[in-house]
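If your schedule permits, I should be very grateful for your opinion on a structural question. I would ask you to consider whether the tokens describe a fold that such a sequence might reasonably adopt. Thank you for your consideration; the sequence and its tokens are set out here.
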Amino acid sequence: MDYVMRAVRADEWPQVRQLRLDALKDPAAPVAFLESYEEAVAKPDAFWQERAAAAAAAAAEDGGGRVRQFVAESPEGVWVGSVTVLVESPEDDVRFGEAAAVDQAHLVGVFVRPEVRGTGVTDALFREAVAWAWSLSSPRLERVRLYVHEKNPRAAAFYRRFGFVPSGQRIPAPGGRGELELEYVLGREG
């Protein structure tokens, strides 16, 4: 695999925007993301600039760097996938699901272009994201979590293969259709 896994840079907001829009066109988008293509495309450039800047912030001992977006980049410079890591602490406001019981990372915005699925790109992105989460010392994270829609078995199968296990936590999926989001967790070893 010739792809490079790396954190986004603040000046790459146009690529951050385009990859998100491409992800929202994917057939699995209605059960994988919490916004629609129409909502995302309507957001101003300033939103994408702020998002990229936050995702590119260096981790700092003073609590900075609470979000990091990783991308998979082809040798030609094409972004083929992404995952974002949010650092959550018990004192934080609830972003999605339940409040954090421990210091943890929350993986969101997972997307890999269909043409590179099954090539190891998703594994490499997850290794990069989880390694970054475990590298933080303040706070020292106890686990990594993510949510998967009950009607997204392809994603759930990947998460289990990677080592995530269902926690038993279930929350209502956005949209009020009675569907569920299932929490999967990966505990820190050692």
Summary: The chain is about 30% helix and 30% strand. Residues 59-63 have pLDDT under 50 and may be disordered.
